[in-house]
Each structure stands twice: as structure tokens, then as C-alpha cells.
Amino acid sequence: MPVHIIRVLVVDDSPLVQRILTEGLSKDPNINVVGAAGDPYQARDMIVKLRPDVLTMDNEMPKMTGVEFLRKLMPQYPIPTVMVSSFTERGQKTTLDALTAGAVDFVAKPKGGDLSAMIEELCTKIKIASTVNVSHWKNKQFEHIGTAGTGIRKDAGQVLSKRICAIGASTGGTEALREVICGLPKNFVGTVVVQHMPAGFTKMFADRLNGLAQVVVKEAEDGDLIYDGRVLIAQGGKQMEVVHSGMGWAVKCFDAPLMCGHRPSVERMMFSVAKNVGNKAVGAMLTGMGADGANGMKAMHDAGAKCIAQDEATCVVFGMPKEAYNKGGAEALVPLPRIAQTLVGLLK
């Protein structure tokens, strides 16, 4: 069977970055860089002419930002896009805005001079993006998501949870988590989340959700207690486990090797929930590439937890949910809009 060659358009205002990305990506035999655009207007014309399969796009460009361009592009010409973002606070914010505007994923520019790891990661994410169906963005009307009120609120009541919800997600997970977490009632059981994301991005992501949801959302810190009405999102670059703490549970955040290729790993978190929470847990596996968490969710199920996974039709990538379901961890495949209410129902 012939190998599909992925046609990629690089969008970046820096000629040097264009050349670095073009040369780096072109070393992969499955990727053909069909062009490089210096701004969104040039990119628009090249998209129509060259019909690329995937875009890579810088956040900060002249004339129009990458986010503004995506909001104009996706409703007219949906195309899988991988953002190339900076580690700065502004870069982190615009990256999250881009994911809200339709970008499939992102890679972070390295702080040092070594670009080889970033190019390798970008190649992988381009291949994932090329398989994603983004047609649901066609004719979409974008709502404005403000950042007002994103300061961390105090936990109301601080009642130690007697039940726990564990959620895992990867590619496409930022938007899926927004829908699920914003659908939870303010007194929902304590919730732990692993979303594959680099260090630095998870705090801003948690703060943003905190300003939108009824529950309190924060980036997990070592020793944080698990309270009702509180969602703890694992730190990028660290592993997270749920451990016993007095009459309840807490999270342990620590440096440790990758598991299933990730840090934080859904697998590691869910294995700890299976061991230390058992049948007092519920779980959900959301959109993501690969199989991280499939065995952990099976362990949760075997320990008596009730678990579900997002269905294929509403996933950006039906990898992690499919594996969790096929291995017997998830008992049902549920459309994204119904996951929050299903989790509430499982706890009754």
C-alpha cells in the first residue's frame, strides 16, 4: 500500500524559521513542505493554490495574529493546524486561544538552541493532525472567551471528598475538558485531571477554566487535598498520583521518568486511583492519540470504579478512548456533550 505523503504549509513571518522548519520537516519521508508563507494573507492565497493537508503556524505575525487568522480560516476552509508557540506567558495565552479557535495541537519553541527535539515532536504532531477531521469547524460562529475573573477562587467549604473523579485527555483535550468541566455542578466530587501539556502551560490552562466553570480549577501542587467542588490539573513536566491523606485523599506531584511516553501520564494517575480509591472512583477518558491510561482505567474498572470514554464521533483523535474501551476499562462510549451529566449520574 502506498504511503500517504502529507502536504504541509509553513506559516511564519521569520525567513530563518521558515528555512529551519522546511529543512527539518523535509527530512521526514512522509512529509512534503509545499510552501512557506510570511503572513496570514499570503498563507490564505497559498492554501487555495496548494491545498495543503496541514498547516504549521506561528502565533505572532504581522498584519494578523495566528488566532485571528484561524478564526477567519476555520469556518471557511477548515484545515488541521499545529501551532508553533513560545514559552512566554503571552505565547502560552495565545496558544490556548488558538486551540479554542480550532488548532489541533501545538509545539513549544525550545528555550535553548537545540531544535532537533522540537522538529521531531512537530513531525509526529503533523502526522496526527493529518488524520483529524476538522469539518465541524465549517461555518462555526466563534464565541468570545474572555479572561476576566480567572483569579483562583477560594475553595467553598473545603469538604474532603468521599468519592473521586479521574479524567485523562491529550490531543483535542483542552476544548473537550472545557466542555466537561464547565458542565460539572459546583459541588461535584473532587476531580483529578491529566492533560498532556508542557510545563508552564498547565497553570494558565487551569486558571482559564477556573474563570469559566462552577467548580474551582487549579494547577495541582504537591500535597493539595482533594475537596468537593475542586478540580486539580496535573502540572506539565511532573507525574501526579492520588494518595491517602488523613480522612481523605491528596495529590502527590513529583519528578519521575516518562510513563507511556508522557509526563504527566494518565496511566500513572489512574493506577494510583485504582490502588488508593478503588470503587469510590469514577473515570472518563477523553480525546487523545495513543493508549496512555488504557491499562490504568482497566485497573480502575477492576477495582470497582465506573468508567466511560468519549465516543469516536465527538473526538478529535479516537485513540485513548478507543484503547480504554477495547481493554475493558471504559464501560460505555459517550458523546462529549453528555459526559459531564453521565459522570454525575454514575455517582448516584
Explain how this protein is built:
- The chain is of the alpha/beta class and 348 residues long.
- The protein folds into two domains: 6-137, Rossmann fold, CATH 3.40.50.2300; 164-346, Rossmann fold (3-Layer(aba) Sandwich), CATH 3.40.50.180.
- 33% of the residues lie in helices and 21% in strands.
- It contains eleven helices and 14 strands.
- The chain has helices at 15-26, 40-50, 66-73, 89-100, 116-129, 173-182, 201-210, 266-276, 294-302, 320-326, 336-346, and strands spanning 6-11, 31-37, 54-58, 81-85, 105-108, 164-169, 190-195, 216-219, 230-233, 239-245, 248-254, 281-285, 306-310, 332-334.
- The strands form three sheets. It has a seven-stranded parallel β-sheet, with helices on both faces. Strands 2-1-3-4-5 form a five-stranded parallel β-sheet, sandwiched between helices.
- Helix 3 links the parallel strand 3 and strand 4.
- Helix 6 (173-182) packs across helix 11.
- The longest helix is centred in the middle third of the chain and has 14 residues, at 116-129.
- The radius of gyration is 20 Å and the shape is elongated.
- The N and C termini lie far apart (50 Å).
